[in-house]
Amino acid sequence: MRQVKSVKYNFIMNLILTSSNFIFPLITFPYVSRVLLASGNGKVNFITSVVNYFMMVAALGIPTYGIRACAKVREDKDKLSKTVQELMIIHTIMTLITLIFYTLSIFLVNEFYQEKELMLINSVGLVFNVFGVNWLYQALEEYDYITIRSIIFKIISIILMFLFVHQTGDYVIYGAITVFSTCGSYILNFIRLRKLISFQRYPSYNLRQHIKPILVFFAQSMATTVYCNLDTVMLGFMKGDVEVGYYTVAIKIKTLLTSVVTALGAVLLPRLSYYVGSGQKDKFYQLIKKTINFVVAMSLPLTIYFILMANESILFLSGSGYEPAVAAMQIILPTILLIGLSNVTGIQVLTPLGMERYVLISVIVGAMVDLILNTLFIPGYGSAGAAFGTLMAELAVLIVQIVFIRHMIQEKIFDYHQILRIGLSAILPIFTILLIKSWSLGVFWRLLCSAVLYFGIYFLLSLLLNVHIIKDYTLTILKKLHLIH
């Protein structure tokens, strides 16, 4: 019987991974932005967004469904092996079909043909995605392996970037390095797969049993991918690479911050599914309530701080020439809180309860809102219009999901008193940011001083107002450091 690691251990591992996702771009993004400029950066991100659509179609709903399907049989190696093989067969068939349409699109769509080198390089990632089986490692809660592997390939990518990316025309090389990092992880996953499952051939495979749930999760994934990538793709077609470059800066910072907020949620799906399956509803609701408090406590101060320090953040990360990205960043930053909450209501509440069809409905609504608003606002407002469309799409997703779980909202999963205390702790220190912005300091020192003061006062106020999630984690850390008993 496999030894399942604790939620706390998995969270720590995922927090390390999330921190690396935050730290490494702080090293790479300023360099890439300055070397490739908005146009080169925009080309890479435009093609990457397009390829994400093809990868989504090839994978169907396997990345999410695979976690749940494998988690159910993870104690039986024979059943687990057969399940993994069946899902890989489905993925392989769909990848071959998708590759045909992908190749045709390069020659039929002028924007793709102009960047055919990038399109061909990214096709390698499309093929190797079959062998990645990241969903299996998540189902088995192998977060230590996932974390170590990810950090190793990030380090290799950074070295390659500094060695080979030196001028604007090197954007194709940068795209290739990005693909290499992803494919390297996929290959390592596949090599290690023999330790987890058997590759013996079975007399028969039951692919049919997976089709219906895979399609439900695929529809959900498709709608999510639409409103996550549609803004970038529409910007590329309607306004060009430069606007995509501006928008990339804004969403890069938002994405980094969102990954910090959703770090805990990423490890909870298998555990929450177990609580539901074993009838432990009290533990289920207790864990959800703690997660919501964690999301609000992390996302609210981050959102407030970076909205007020958007100009300095973009100057520090990307240098001059990206000033138009400031408005887009300020508009899109509230999605940190919205995505954090919808991650809880959708992935951690509705999915374990077998209500993923409601998640599908919510993301379809979000995709429709995004499409309509992008069409209306991108022509006149460019990257800021795309940011507004995404903001409204995320708000729509959260509202729809809350409607579906409204019967649980009373004291079961929302602790309004704690959320109010978190809000006060985050709002009161705003004066420190406004004060430091008025000082004649360099960009770096304004960011450093304002961050230390704002988050320091936020932390102290959280303790004084008895914000449980902050207080509990503080006590845990102090005990680990043997500073208290």
TrEMBL record:
Keywords, in A-Z order: Cell membrane, Membrane, Transmembrane, Transmembrane helix
Gene Ontology cellular component list: plasma membrane
Membrane topology recorded in Swiss-Prot or TrEMBL: Multi-pass membrane protein
Highest taxon of source: Bacteria
Segments crossing the lipid bilayer: 12-32, 44-66, 87-107, 119-137, 146-165, 171-193, 214-238, 244-270, 291-311, 331-351, 358-378, 384-405, 451-470
Localization: Cell membrane
Chief localization: membrane
Protein name: Flippase
